[in-house]
Amino acid sequence: AYSMAMGAVIQMTRELSTEWACHGVRVNCVTPAQVTNPSLIERMQADPTLEGRFLRGIPAGRMGRPTDIQGLAVLLASDASEWITGAIIPMDGGNMAMNAGGTPRTRD
């Protein structure tokens, strides 16, 4: 269900960004992954292997924090992003790049 909902949000972003751009309205989508929140923390406590499985897919080597998303949200809400619309921006510590075929480096 999550992937279908995310697909709908991404397509809606594309459609609305083209429909509203002529009115000066920017529509973008931030796609955060593995960002800690109370629900995720509870899931990781219930399954001690879950965090390790997540971390193996994150080249940055750590779970995301809500504060990691704030800077991008501020940028997208500011006039500094007036030429950004229809963007689908992953905030995932490199997870999407790795799943697209990249090879993560291990920390020394």
Helical amount among residues, as a percent range? 40-55%
> What is the N-to-C succession of helices and strands?
HEHHHEH
Summing up helix and strand content along with how strands pair, one would put the structural category as: mainly alpha
User: Span between N and C termini?
Assistant: 38 Å
Radius of gyration: 16 Å
Q: What is the global morphology?
A: elongated
Q: Kindly report the CATH topology.
A: Rossmann fold
How many strands appear in the DSSP assignment?
2
- Any idea how many domains? 1
Task: Characterize the largest beta sheet: strand count, sense, and whether it forms a barrel.
Answer: 2 strands, parallel
Provide a count of the helices: 5
Low-confidence stretches: none
Mind telling me the CATH superfamily name? NAD(P)-binding Rossmann-like Domain
CATH second-level architecture: 3-Layer(aba) Sandwich
Q: For the largest beta sheet, what order do the strands appear in spatially?
A: 1-2
Strand content: 5-15%
Mean pLDDT metric = 91
Any idea of the CATH class? Alpha Beta
